[in-house]
Amino acid sequence: MNAKQLIAVIALLSGSISAFAGSLPRIDLLGDAMPASAATRTIVITPSTKFVNVTGGERVRFVAGDKTFGWNFDGALQVTSFDLNRIVPANVLDHEVVAYVTPNPTYVP
Length: 109
Hints:
Blueprint: H1 3-21, E1 32-34, E2 41-45, E3 51-55, E4 59-64, E5 67-72, E6 81-83, E7 98-102
Parallel strand pairs: 2-4, 3-7
Antiparallel strand pairs: 1-5, 4-5, 6-7
C-alpha cells in the first residue's frame, strides 16, 4: 500500500468513525409515547428549562404551557440522554430540553 492509498484509507475511516459517533439513536430506542393520564410523574417545562432528569422505566407527563404529552422511558439502556424535541408532538417545545436518563435500577446489576 502506498502513501496515497494509506491516506485515503485513514480519511475514509476517520469519516466513518465521526459519522458513527455523531449518529442519533432511533426514536424507538428512546421509549414510547403514551397517554399523559397514564403517567406516574409530572414534569413542568418552562422557558428556562434546559434539562430534565428521569429514570428508565418512568412514565412521565410533561406539561409545557397549555400543552401536555406523555412518554414512557422504556427505551434501550444505552440511551443516556437525548433532545426531547425528537419525541414531543409538533409545536410543544420552542427550545431545546435534554432528557438525562438514569438506567432503570431493576435492570442494572
